[in-house]
Structures are given as C-alpha cells and as structure tokens.
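Practice record 12: protein with cytidine-5'-monophosphate.
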Amino acid sequence: MIPAIKRAAVEFKEIEKDKTILIISHYDTDGITSAAILAKTLQREDKKFNIRIVKQLERELLDEIKKEFRKEIIFFLDLGSGSLDILKNFSNKIFILDHHECKEEKLPENIKFINPHLFNEETEMSASAIVYLFAKEINKENKDLSNLAVLGMVGDMVERELSRVNSNILKDSDVMVKKGLLLFSATRPISRALEYSSEFFIPGVTGSSSGVTNLLRSIGIDRQKILLDLTEEEISKLVTTIILKTMGQEEKLNIIGNIYLIKFFNRVEDARELSTLINACSRLGYPDVALSLCLGNSKARMKAESIYNTYKHEIVASLNWAEQNEKLQGDNYVIINAKSNIKDTIIGTVTSIIASSFLYKEGTIIVGMAYRGDKIKISIRKSRGNKINLQNLLSNINKVINGEFGGHANAAGCLIDKEKEQTFIDTIKKELETEAIQIKV
Ligand code: C5P
Ligand code: C5P
C-alpha cells in the first residue's frame, strides 16, 4: 500500500497551487481526525480548502456535490469505498483515502483510490492512519500529526491488535501505552469511569450514582481514586465484581488491556476519553467543534466538555432504555428496535457498547435500529468469538431491503426506508438463524 500512497502524494504535489480542495469526511472520531490531519497538511502547503463533515455519503449528497463543486479537487476520507459507481462519473480529480470493505474495481485515471483492502496486507487500519501516511509522504515534518492518527485508531478500536504499520505510527507519536483495566476513562476518578463506562454496560451500576457507590463500598475502593492508580488487588476485586454483575458466571474477560495516554492541551488524557469527546460533539450535531478541538482550539475544548456531559447522559439513558425494553432475541442475535427512543446518531455507539459488554453470550450479534426521518438507521456489531463478516451479511440481504450499506467485518451499518422495517427484521432474522445452524453443524 505504501507505494500507492507515495504515487498519490506525487500526483497531489503536481496540482496547481491555486486549485481549491474540498475535503469530505465522516463524522466519527476516525473521520474527524482524518480531516484534521489533512487540513493541517494543506495549511502547511499553503493550499485553499473547505471541509464538509457528513454522517454518510448518501446518493443525494453526492448528486449535490457533483453539481456544486465542478472544479475542486475532492478528498473523500473514511468514506467513498461504497460509492465508487457514482464517483466514476465525476470529472473532478478525486482522492479516496478509506478503510471500509470494498471490491477491486477498474477506476478512471482521475480517481486515486487508497484502501488497505486492495492490498491484502494490512486490513485493520483506521482511515486516520492512511491519511497520516499520506501526509508524511507530502512532508516528513507532518510526523507531529501522528497523535491524531492514534486517536483515530482508538476511535475505531484498531489499536487493540496493533499491526506493524500501526505500531510504527505509534512510535512516531508521543502517546504512552500502559496496561490497565479497560474501563474508561483511566485518567478520571473510578466512580465516574464506572457510572459512565462506555466499554461495558454493567446493570445497576452504569448510569447509577448510588449503584456505583454501593459497588465501590462493598469492595473497599475509594471513589475518588484514579483508575490508573488502582493496586493489582483492587483491580482484581473490581474485575470479579464486574463479572458477577454481568454474566453471573466466570468468563474469560478481555478486561485488562492497553491504555493509550495522549498529551492534549498540556494534560495527559486517556485516548478513549478524547475519542469519545470528539464523537460526542459530532453525534450531537457539532462536528465543527470536534474538528476545532482536534486542530488545538482551546475554546472548542470548553464547548466540547459541555456537549460531552449531555452526550454521556444520552448514552446512559439509551443503554438503560435498551436494557429495560423488549428485544427480539434468537440463539445468536439480539435486535433492539428503538424506533424514536434512541437517536439515530447514537444507536451505533449503543450497539458497540452492548456488544463489548458481557450481557449476552459469546458470539452474539447485536442489531440496533433507530428512526431517522422517513428512514431507519441500522447498526450491527458482534461480541467476541464470532467470525461472521457483518458487511457481507448486509450485502447478502440488501437485494431485499434495498438500503445504503457499508462497513467492516466487525461493524457495519445501513440506512433503509421506513416501510422496509418489518421486511428487514424478517430477513435478517432468517439470515442469522441460518448462520447459527451452519455454525452448529
Ligand atoms: O466508519 P467507521 O469505520 O469509522 O466506523 C467504525 C465504527 O465501528 C465505530 O463506531 C467503531 O467504534 C466501530 N467498531 C467496532 N468494533 C470494531 C471496529 C469498529 O465497534 N472492531
Ligand atoms: O453507522 P455505524 O456506526 O453503525 O456504522 C458501522 C460502520 O459501517 C462504519 O464503519 C460506517 O462508516 C459503515 N457504514 C457504511 N455505510 C452505511 C452505514 C454505515 O459504510 N450506509
């Protein structure tokens, strides 16, 4: 993939100086950090550019871009792989730096497409890592943008198993890695980490201040203690208690892992906390704040903290809604049809949290559904130990649901018309039940 990035960088350098560039990027942490890395790079090259942060690359949006931006050079970051058919008809010079699953396709000369899936070698890469490698090809001085690349990796959970390329990016950065309990944030008091834990949903504890107090009192841990400062004995007690509160049985838990510590605005922070802060701003409708934050604007930091508080309450309320309301459950799946009870922009995060909690048995597929106007936003995740490719799953059923879909093996999503609600449920149930039978055979 590196030679292709080098070629793209050479082509980029040949572009006339006065050409305006349009950056279109995805609204989650990976997309925002990708946009920030490219924005800084372009600024340093003295280029004129505009940025658009979007929830999804819908057909209507692409039509609008095609009409409105005829002459611009366009960069698609953290998206685009699922829209090649439409992009083929653009006459602009286009760079797509993306990591979503895709098929190999013959593309016209004006499109430079960089996606690790085309090169078989490093499939688990964040878009921010790809954009960073591109930025470093443009100018070695851009090495200081590696912290943003790591933040994007953490946002997409790529940092859990670091490949060689990702480890090298980590080495470029000044991010510190420490082993610890994967509750977050590791740099804030344990009581807050438990109350707003978005790694695991712990019934009776997540979202409940009194639940947290009771739990900590029962095992004798000071509620103000910072997670990173817990002793081994305290960690062990906490892990045992969390296991008992979730599955109610011994489970092999991946509850201890690497914690990434990043210096941000002169304070050492848990990268997951920052990643969530960025996500919170975007998902509550403030992608501009998220971007300014990544670009180092201290006013944005204050605004982001206040949005983050609202977001945490929203997440916890959504998790509790999901826990307390009826779900469609099969042997290997859970469907949470939240309709208008969970925001369409939050359902993905809620589904991710439930999948990485220990509420359902190993291998369970979690499907979240939430209304978005006359459409339904669907997010699918899987808990550990299931080899199913979720992007392929959606691809298989898309003939019936006719949605706009995409994603990865571990996380995929789609948007369908509301009238397809029942058809989607019936079809995915059938597909997953067949899958369960195949696994048993
Ligand atoms: O569009 P994008 O690839 O950036 O979004 C990835 C989404 O999938 C994020 O919400 C991320 O948290 C989630 N994810 C996950 N498990 C993985 C990889 C990604 O839940 N193993
Ligand atoms: O939206 P959600 O977080 O559930 O998306 C999971 C993954 O699927 C993300 O990587 C997202 O970019 C991708 N996706 C996509 N096309 C869609 C919906 C989601 O590529 N229409």
